Amino acid sequence: MKLCRWIVVLALVGAATAVTAQDLKSPSADQYVPRLGDIMSAAQTRHQKLWLASKAQNWELSAYELRQLKASLVEAALLYSGIPVSNVTTLEPSLQATSDAIATKDGRKFAKALGDLTEGCNACHRSMGRSFVVIKVPADPQPFANQLFAPPARP
């Protein structure tokens, strides 16, 4: 199972992020381990900055923010074994589509890919019993414009 987790992490990181062997070591008991909520808050911030950079057509910054977002997801998968590997791997196609859209500077493809990535985040939240955390594609540049704060409708 550990080998599978490492393979998934390495696949997610890919060529977009430089990773050293030291980065992939599990933390020892005396090392600081960020709370999962803090890692996810960083990911949410990167998600919004990714959107803002693309809206400004700053594709270099978009690529950087996407790499940082991937790094947050990898960190969460490495540090929190309770996150099913499948939750992380299902994001790979939308992460790649987002990267491809950035590389070609295609705003339309980027919008679609970011929408798919956002839905992937929400699917993970639902599967983890955190359906009250709903991320959305930002509609404006206000802080936390990429999260819905009203409770989700009950089926």
TrEMBL record:
| Keywords, ordered alphabetically | Signal
Q: Signal peptide position in this chain? A: 1-21
Task: Output this protein's name.
Answer: Cytochrome c domain-containing protein
